Amino acid sequence: MDKPVATTRIQKRNVSIISEAALEVFSTYGFRGATVDQIAREAGLSKPNLLYYFPSKEAIHSHLLTTLMDVWLAPLRDLDASGEPLEEVLAYVRRKLELSRQRPRESRLFANEIVQGAPHILELLSTELKDLVDEKAAVIAGWMDAGRLAKAHPYHLIFSIWSLTQHYADFDVQVRAVLGPKVKDPTREAGEYLEVLFTRMLKVD
After folding, report:
1. pLDDT digits over 102-118, tens only?
2. Do 110 and 184 have their domain in common?
3. What are the angstrom distances between the C-alpha of 13 and each of 79, 122, 198?
4. What distance in Å separates the CA atoms of residue 87 and residue 80, rounded to the nearest whole number?
5. Does DNA-binding show up as a keyword for this record (predicted)?
6. Where does the pLDDT of residue 5 fall: very low under 50, low under 70, confident under 90, or very high at 90 and above?
C-alpha cells in the first residue's frame, strides 16, 4: 500500500482532512461510486494537491481502512478474560453499539468493503481480525466449559453481536423510518433490548 506523504505539521493536517473527506465520500457512495474529484471537493483541496498526498483513490481507501481497523477491533480487544463472563459479554455489546452510534460512517465503510469481497483488507481479515476472534472465542468457550455462561457457539455469538449492533449504523435510515421521528436515539432502546436478549441467552440458571 502506498503510504501518504505526511512529514510536517501542515502535511499531517492535510492527510487528516483528506481522510475525513474520504470517509464521508466512501461511506456515502461506496468505493466504486466515489471519485478522487469528489474527495478533493469534500476536503476543500485541489485534485493535484490531493494527489500529492495519495497517488490514487485506491491508496486513499486502503489507508482509511487500515488506520480504522484498530478502532474497529478495540471493543473486542477489551473483552477481559479475568472479568465476570456475562458482564464482559454485555460490556462488549454496549461498546459495539456505542461505536455504531458514534461512528456510523466507519461502519458503513467496512460494510461496503465486505460486500465487495474485501479486496483491500482481506489479508487483515485473515490475519489480525481472525487471530483476535480466535483468541476471544477461546476465552468465551472456556467460560462456557466452566459453567460460567450457558452453552452457545462462541464464534457465532461474536458474529451475532456484530450483526445486531452494526445494523443500527448500516441500516440507520431504515431503522429511523420504521421507528418514526419520536425515537431520537434508536441505539438507546436497542441497548436495553440487546442486554435482555444476551442475558437470557447466556445466563446460567
Report:
1. 988 888 888 888 888 88
2. yes
3. 33, 29, 42
4. 10
5. yes
6. low
Q: How many residues does the chain have?
A: 205
Q: In which domain, by residue range, is 97 found?
A: 65-202
Which residue, 74, 63, 62, 72, is CA-closest to 16?
63
The reported pLDDT for the residue numbered 185 is 87
CB atoms within 10 A of CB 99: 19
Is residue 53 included in any domain, yes or no? Answer: yes
Whether 103 is in a domain gets the answer yes
Task: Provide the number of structural domains found in the chain.
Answer: 2
> Which residues fall within 8 angstroms of residue 138, CB to CB, at 6 or more apart?
154
CA distance from start to end of the chain? 51
Q: Grid coordinates in use for 3?
A: 503510504
Band of pLDDT at residue 52, cut at 50, 70 and 90: very high
pTM of the model: 0.84
156: domain CATH number is 1.10.357.10
Give 199's pLDDT tier (boundaries 50, 70, 90).
very high
Is the same domain home to 151 and 196?
yes
Upper half-sphere CA count for residue 187 (Cβ side, 13 Å): 21
Burial class (CB in 10 A: 0-12, 13-18, 19+), 27: buried
Could you tell me which residues come within 8 angstroms of residue 153 by beta carbon, excluding any fewer than 6 positions away? none
